[in-house]
Each structure stands twice: as structure tokens, then as C-alpha cells.
Design goal:
Helix content: 25-40%
Strand order of the largest sheet: 3-2-1-4-5
Number of strands: 7
Shape: globular
Strand content: 15-25%
Number of helices: 9
Radius of gyration: 17 Å
Distance between the termini: 26 Å
Number of domains: 1
């Protein structure tokens, strides 16, 4: 059985604002087990993964936090490319650099977590492997534009963060949950789909509810990466300067071509269209 884990880490280890984690087991193309999203610190997430990882198949962890951050200041090139789309959709991208104390400095919990986890970070290998533990970086806000065509368009990104009370839209909350449920159903994950639909009916969502929903979306990205045709996903960036794995509709791919070309950010290990003399294998 292959295990797909989604972890929205919340980036810091604040006990008052933990992340969330969930897991889906797939065997013979159908969901065989489901561990519903629950709140978790880095330490709790590590225990969860050790407990639920596959013993005879692949375990793929989709982590909503940068995992390759070589830059001391500023933003990673892949974030500039992602921001071009996310800002067009009406959202924003948090910068990651080693100067962000508690998030990406040498003492940050993400590095201790990844070291203790001991997972291999190689998205392409993780897609086809028969066994082993793998981790890859994902970004739910970027993925949503491909998971539902209704979220692709200028200022059409969903406002579903309950903390942002001035912009939060209850209709968007339900739309995101239903989009996740529909994608889960298409991937043969009925229990995950039902959980998402139930989450979409939450009367007054809190930030913790969004973290749980985002962990489910992370899990969906992992499922999409391995179970869908390769061209349905995109490896944006590389393992040297930073990357993200995302479902990618043809419209999203086309939109990202220009900023990727400008920033010299590889797409699927190759230079974006219009750039010659550069490629980067993961």
C-alpha cells in the first residue's frame, strides 16, 4: 500500500498555532485507509509519519513549507514565478530566506524535522518509486488554480482564510472544500472526499479548520503527482535554488511560462520555452 501524507506545517513551532496533517492509503488504485486531518506540531507530525508510513510501498509527504532555501535574504526565484500567478489571482506569496528567524534560520524547526524524518527529496523519483519515504514541497494556493477552473482568472483566487476577516468569503470556503472533494473522488479517495464536503459545511470556520483543509489539499497534490499522467503536474524550479510541485492545467502552464523564462526558473527540469542553454534536472 502506498501512503500519501499532507502536512501544512504553519512554518513555525508555535504551540498555540500548530499545523495540520492527514494521510491516505491507496492500494490497487483505490483508497484503502484514511486518517482525517488533525492539528499537529512538527514533533507530532514526525510521530504521525513514523506511525503511518508504508511498510511495503511508497510514502510521499507533501509539505506546505519551503524545503530548499539557500538564499540569505530576499525571495527564491521559484517564489517570484509563483507570485506572478498568485498575485494575479488576488493572493500573495510569503518570502522565504535564511534571515527569517524561527522559520528558515539554522535553528528553525523545519531543518530539525527534515533531518529527523530522513526522507529522500527527489520528486521525479518519488513519482515512480516502488518503495521508500519521500518529501516534496507544495503550495496549496498555487495548486487551486488547476484543481478548479473557477479559481483561474484575474482576482478569482478563493478568499478562504478565516483570519482575514475583511476578505474572507464563506462561499469561497465551500467552493474550495467542494473542489478538493471532487478531485479526491476522481482519484478514488471517497473517505477523503466526504471529509472535505463535511468541512465545507462548517458554519464558522476557524484558522485551524483552514489548516486541516490545506493539509487535505497537500495530500491531494501528492496523490495527483503519482496517480495522474506526468503532464498533469509541474515541477517548478529545482533542488538547488528551490522548487514547488503542483497540479498544472494547460492554462496555468501557459501563464507561468513568461515569469519562469524571466527568472530562469526550470519547468519540469528544462529551461522554460524561449530560453536556450539552460536546463536543470531534479
Amino acid at each position: 500500500m502506498d501512503i500519501y501524507i499532507g502536512f501544512d506545517s504553519a512554518w513555525t513551532d508555535n504551540p498555540k498555532a500548530p499545523g495540520a496533517i492527514c494521510a491516505v492509503g491507496v492500494e490497487d488504485g483505490r483508497q484503502a485507509l484514511f486518517h482525517a486531518p488533525l492539528l499537529a506540531s512538527f514533533r507530532q507530525a514526525l510521530s504521525f509519519i513514523r506511525c503511518h508510513r508504508s511498510r511495503n510501498g511508497v510514502t510521499l509527504l507533501a509539505l506546505d513549507q519551503p524545503t530548499v532555501v539557500p538564499n540569505l535574504v530576499g525571495v527564491r526565484p521559484v517564489e517570484r514565478v509563483a507570485a506572478s500567478l498568485v498575485s494575479w489571482l488576488g493572493g500573495g506569496v510569503q518570502p522565504s530566506n535564511r534571515g527569517r528567524l524561527g522559520m528558515f534560520c539554522d535553528a528553525s524547526p523545519i531543518w530539525r524535522f527534515l533531518t529527523a524524518l530522513g526522507a529522500e527529496e527527489n520528486p521525479e523519483l518519488a513519482r515512480t518509486a516502488d518503495g521508500g519515504l519521500y518529501v516534496m514541497e507544495v503550495f496549496p494556493a498555487l495548486a487551486l488554480a488547476s484543481l478548479d477552473a473557477g479559481f483561474f482568472g484575474r482576482l478569482k483566487g478563493p478568499r478562504y482564510n478565516p483570519l482575514r476577516k475583511k476578505t474572507f468569503r464563506m462561499a469561497d470556503w465551500g467552493h474550495v472544500a467542494e473542489a478538493a472533494a471532487r478531485n479526491a473522488q476522481e482519484l478514488g479517495c471517497d473517505a477523503l472526499a466526504e471529509w472535505c464536503r463535511t468541512a465545507g459545511r462548517t458554519a464558522r470556520p476557524l484558522k485551524a479548520d483552514q489548516d486541516k483543509l490545506d493539509s487535505a489539499i497537500c495530500g491531494l497534490i501528492a496523490l495527483h503527482w503519482r496517480l495522474r499522467p506526468r503532464e498533469a503536474s509541474l515541477l517548478l524550479g529545482d533542488l538547488t535554488n528551490g522548487y514547488m510541485v503542483l497540479p498544472a492545467s494547460s492554462e496555468v502552464r501557459e501563464y507561468l511560462n513568461a515569469p519562469a523564462r524571466k527568472q530562469l526558473v526550470p519547468m519540469d527540469g528544462k529551461a522554460p520555452p524561449g530560453v536556450t542553454g539552460r536546463s536543470s534536472a531534479p
